[in-house]
Amino acid sequence: MAMPLNYTQLLETNNLIQQNVDESYWLCVTRTVQESKLFPVPSYMMLSYLMAFYRYPSLLRKIESRMSAEELGDRSREMAMKHRAPGVSWGLPNFYLLGREWLINLGVIKPTDAIEDVMYVMDFWKRFQLSLHRNDGHISRAQYGHRGQTLSERQAQVFHSDLYSCEAGDELHEAAHQFMASASQYGFLISCESRISLHNHGPYKLSDTSEMIVRDFMDLAESDFPWLDGVAKGVEYNNITVTMAAKDCHFYLVDDWGSFEAEPEFSAEKLVGVGLYASDNLSEGYMPLGMNSREELIATFKRLDGQVKEAMNNLWRRIAGYSRDQMMDAGAITYFAIIKDLAHIAGVYDVDDWMKVDERAERFRPLLNDEYGRDVLGELVGLLSNPSQKLSDYSMMMHSNAPTRMYTPIPYSVLSGEPYTPTAGPLYPGITNLPEKDDVYTTTRGKMTLAEYNRQSQEFTPSAVAPETRFLCDTWLKYHAGSDQADSLYRITQASSRKLAGKGSTLTRDEVEALRD
Amino acid sequence: MAKLYVDSDKFGEANASPTVEAFHAAVKDLVRRKLDASGGHWDSFVFDKSYGLLTAEDFAGVERQLLDAGHLFDWSAAISPQERPDIYKPIEGVGDDDMGTFSFEHEDAVTGTQGDLEQRGQGDNVARYPQDCEGIARYIRSPMQVMKYLEEGVPENTIAIIDDSGGTLTAPILEQFKGVICAGGSTRSHLGILTREYGVPCVMNAKISGLKQGDTVRIECTAAPKTAADYQKNVDRTAKVWRVAAAG
């Protein structure tokens, strides 16, 4: 997996870095700085960036020793886990590059250090993203004008056909809305004030007046995070997806930070259809939850709402009793481990890899009081006022026109003899201030030990991405609808659909709409 | 003394924050000294010797330099000054002791009298409701206060005054508020998102003055919400915050 050090490769790496500069600056300045009276948010974020810098290259190489970034991307289209977005899509390159940039400004590393690591991390990101976004053909949502159409037609059709209609004031509307509010709030708490347990993709056009957004709520149950052990015992599903049809508005922005915006503004009365699913790397696509009848769906939303509310109250009490170092650990791990599900998919997950603070990063913790954490984060991602981020006065940055740049490229001078170092080194040990993780993982196949989870992950390949189906894309389907091969591919996804089971590959969107309740 | 790569920087300027500038200067000085001590060879220092030479104790010394110069740090998380009161500025308005006199005092709060109503500030309305929201003001600024309400229940008609735009501090009690005045964030902040989802009237980015614990307050949540486009175009669109009656 050694990357060639040549001009072509460096040009590409620096372009990938720059793409993240442009988008990250936009994402950061269109939000306010997030502080919290509960968590030392900026300080734990800064710690997480160092963890990413020191560990991501080694961990990604470990994952790719078993499964390529391209295959991980293919599998990730078939289910909703956190690694997908905002994980790899934004967190992977940016957490890594933010750690690098901070260390450059501390004088601890040079722009010419660890360049094979930098090239590899950016290349992994590129290959995963292109694969994940194969259906819309972009490398990122920014490149698609802040839109993310991850689903193939066969997946979109099942979500579309199985939506239950609802309207403001009816019981399903209320139950769905209440669950999404509770799950959002619980998600913020699980993720230590960040929004990375929540995400959305879409929109998908259902009719001239209706669009569908797919909302994912992730890492809700006892699984990877030690702080959920016990308190989230009653939460049945780790990853929950709510499909949501909206009328009379257009979602013009669905970004990599889990935000969506519509024109006219999306409000509760515009919600006209919902569906409910669970998924992970051990499921055959999305498993419907309570979707056999409207009554069952209402009851399921209410049951899950009760589960997350109870877990939230339990978790809040636990966290309110944490020390600052424990809060720092939980927050930093939440950020750093945003891509941990890649290791689950490959079946090589190790608690010490993902739930510990690397000792090289740990050294910097004493710097991270609230004020320095706040100010250095603000300069790094908002003001772009670190010395390394200043450019010639002729320069005009995208979105700001200022002579600044968030991340330093690799200097091309390494090709003409300037000394460089290739890597930050292998994986070093980690520390934790949190209780040891219980050996219990909630999956779509029930609760299991980590060893069992890794074993089942290594043995399982979803049928839709098996060698014989993996490359049967929507372009191929366009010219082969109705063939045995196409019907058989569609029937995999339709198997658990109450409306489309066995219907094959020839239906149009309007025919799917006509089949709805 | 060893020279660092970043010591020659044609375009770089000092950091905007004096604290960041001081910390980074001290760390760079540390790196120069440790690099010298290790023999001055960068390649063997950067990802090898430096791991043992640049220690947590060294970085603790960086913070100590500012403290020794008389600096006290701003705090944001309540746990921080609770654990290390010696390094942070004093805490106010987080317990019952000083709540009788505490109030947010924002310079850009718009105040004045309009008929029977006394305007005490303004904020960005998150969502429009059919009627303005009236209730009793209660400051909530720490986990200890939230724990108390979690144990005892939130008093009816509470309009929470908060300066944390996040969604976690008040997570277990947010649904019980009649309204929220948040002195921070925007309508797109986590607290704004959650109050909208729960249907709790809320103004974010509030600038207020003179509102005390127990005052009867009213939020103009019938006003137009502030949208993302408003923020991008710097449109001045606010909702008023009134005091209807002072705490008895």
UniProtKB/TrEMBL annotation, chain B:
InterPro entries: PEP-util_enz_mobile_dom, Phosphohistidine_dom_sf. It holds the Pfam family PEP-utilizers. Residues 156-222 form the PEP-utilising enzyme mobile domain. One of its GO terms (molecular function) is transferase activity, transferring phosphorus-containing groups. This is PEP-utilising enzyme mobile domain-containing protein. It comes from Antarcticimicrobium luteum.
